[in-house]
Amino acid sequence: MPATRKVAPRKRARLSSEDSEPESLHSDALDDLPPKKRARSSNSKSGSSSKLKPKRRKRKADEDDAKDEEDADRSDVDLKEGQEVVGRVVQAPKTGWVPPGQISQNTLDFLAQLKDPACNDREWFKLHEPVYRRTEKEFKDFIEEFTNMLTEVDTQIPPLPPKDVMHRIYRDIRFSNDKTPYKRGLSASFSRSGRKGIFAFFKPGDESIIAAGAWCPAKNELMTLRNHVLRSTPAAKTLHTILSSKAFTAHFGPPRPHPRGERQSVFGREDELKVAPKGVDKNHKDIALLKCRSLAVSHRFTDAQVVAPGSEFMEALRGVADVMTPFVHCLNDLMTLPVDDESDEENEESDAGGPDEDESDAGE
Description:
This protein is 51% helix and 8% strand. The chain has helices spanning 2-20, 33-75, 105-113, 122-127, 129-153, 162-165, 219-231, 234-243, 246-252, 287-290, 303-306, 312-336, 339-342, 345-348, 354-362; strands at 186-193, 196-202, 208-214, 295-301. The chain has a four-stranded antiparallel beta sheet. Mean pLDDT is 80; it is low at 1-33, 41-51 and 344-364.
């Protein structure tokens, strides 16, 4: 009984001393102390971390959302290494687009913005590139349908894919005083080869056109054409017949120069000669035609016609292309067929030596 009383106080004393004076404990007892401290510290940390985790998760989620949004803005912009976009990328409209074979108001609206110098700028264009890409896709779909229609009207035109007939929207500014980087319209050209063919250009402001002919033909081609006109060959007579036909004059005007120098039929272009070609009589009956360096015609459409629903616009284009096709074929003959092959046998002797002189004079 007394021994029991002596042991119990000592045990309680040791327990209390462990809490109050840990440095006085035996060295063997220190082995049990670190786990207790680690247990307490781990419990306290786990308790505090459990309270902070929701905040960190929320903050991380917000950062991830912001990063995803930024990546989405940049995903449609093709940036080179070292480049960055300064500003917010504008996404393409989700509505207002039309089926293949039509042009939407969205396309005209985008092109109209390029008329503003502040928008016809590389930085602005980069921020609006998603809109341009969607506009470009719609135009490709339209050109594919237009090509299908055109190859039905003119069997000499090969059915090429849109990428082979569409023109780039980027201007060639290397030798131009106008450093505006982008064109203000979308265009494509179709022909059996070279510059001779049909040209389509879509530009807001009632400036969309379809044109056909030969623009700045090569020297030899122009020389051959003028010799046909000078010799009044069958091909030249066919050209006169086409230019004066009822359907042709209804679309492009009468076959003579405009009194005020405006464009009419094949006349009135900027590269037209002011005087007769060298060696050609200025009183020649076809002197107006002989002054032309380019022989082309064009027909204009309003914005309302361009964005007309359904196949209205495509049918209007077909009607003009029907009239243009014989004109294009005739020009191809005039610039490729030798004059002697087209001459009448009666005129071969009287005109001997004439073509060589005319060719050398007209080509200068």
